Amino acid sequence: MSITSLLADPAAIAAACARMAIAPRIALDTEFLRERTYRAELALVQLADAQTITLIDPQINDGLRPLVDLLLARGSVKVLHAARQDVEVLLPLTGVPLAPVLDTQLAAALLGFPPQIGYADLVQRVLDVPLAKAAGRNLARTDWTRRPLSADQLAYAEDDVRYLLDLAERLAEQLDARGRLAWAEEDCARLSDPSLYRQDPADAWQRFKGVEALAPAERARLKAVAAWRETRAQHRNLPRGWILSDEAVRDLAREPPASLAALQARRIFKEDTALRLGPELLAAIGAARQADESAERANGRPSVEEDATARQLGRRLKAVAADLGIAPEILATQRDLRRLARGERDLGVLAGWRGRIVAPALHEVLGPAALS
């Protein structure tokens, strides 16, 4: 497989994209920087077809239309590993999520590999190819926006797409042999849903674990503070943690300060920042709805009966997963099980291939009428 140098010339980018436009599958990866911003800074795009690895510098800004057209072409499948993050990082460039997509991490999980298996590990286990990059992961944390990129950085980036097409082909063969190729296609199709990438501040609380264990008033304050932080981070394009740490969000939810002076005493902000942002944050906390348990059942503490039902569901799904040779979380998350126990039915576990596979097991716990 031949390798191009880093392309930063519009004419060279156009020519490379034209060559790859006829490929039925294109391997794709990105490098980016997120440590200092809310939105990731796209720094490098790696592409490969059967003959060539191509590295494109997206920082040139102008002259990227051929790349966008290639990525959005419906006639070629974009093959990625752990695709969701890359699709999100590319959104400012492409405007819409990529489609169609094949995610080798999702595909591998349906064959019994660990759900979060890394690319280098999967290449080793499926293709029996040891990647040198597996021993040098520190390169992943370098500043990919700086130029020029070193030879080691370029080699690292090339390896990210060098084996993706072979990996996808091997996984597809194994999935087809086990009657699961349609499962992978269904899961990968969800990656093209724009709603997957919307970052609504009202949903920011969902990043926190253990929310159901909080009292209703604490939960309401956590939602308000998390939404406030998300809005500030988006507006200023800064990492969430630079606005307010997760620990501070929880602390404010558990013990809200009664005044600006009390907030300053917490030392979660520098003094000038507390004076500037404190009144706004206190207003958000004060406006938090003091919900009672019944109004917050969807995300609150489960009843004894609901907890018992969720445990039963978990045991049945573990048995189904064991029969399939996959991890239980591929079928449903713990949050899914709690929501099922509370009576919710508009859930992914009940849709598509999952619904067909798990419905008989759920019938045993919830009863057939509960799922009709």
Considering the chains and any ligands shown, give keywords for the structure.
372 residues; alpha/beta; Nucleotidyltransferase, domain 5; DNA polymerase, domain 1; 3 domains; six-stranded mixed beta sheet; 16 helices; 49% helix; flat
Could you explain the architecture of this structure?
This protein is an alpha/beta fold and 372 residues long. Helix content is 49%, strand content 9%. It has a six-stranded mixed β-sheet, with helices on both faces. Strand 2 and strand 3 form a beta hairpin. Helix 5 crosses helix 7 and helix 9 crosses helix 13. The longest helix is centred in the middle third of the chain and has 21 residues. About 2% of the residues have low confidence.
Quick gist of this model?
49% of the residues lie in helices and 9% in strands. It contains 16 helices and six strands.
- H and E order: EHEEEHEHEHHHHHHHHHHHHH
For the secondary structure, the number of strands is 6
Largest sheet: 6 strands, mixed
Proper CATH architecture of the largest domain: 2-Layer Sandwich
Amount of helix: 40-55%
Cα(first) to Cα(last) distance is: 53 Å
- The CATH topology assignment of the largest domain is Nucleotidyltransferase, domain 5
List segments where confidence is low: pLDDT < 50 over at least 5 consecutive residues. Answer: 291-298
Beta-strand residue fraction: 5-15%
CATH structural class of the largest domain? Alpha Beta
Rounded to an integer, what's the Rg over CA atoms? 24 Å
CATH superfamily of the largest domain: Ribonuclease H-like superfamily/Ribonuclease H
Question: What's the pLDDT, averaged over the residues?
Answer: 91
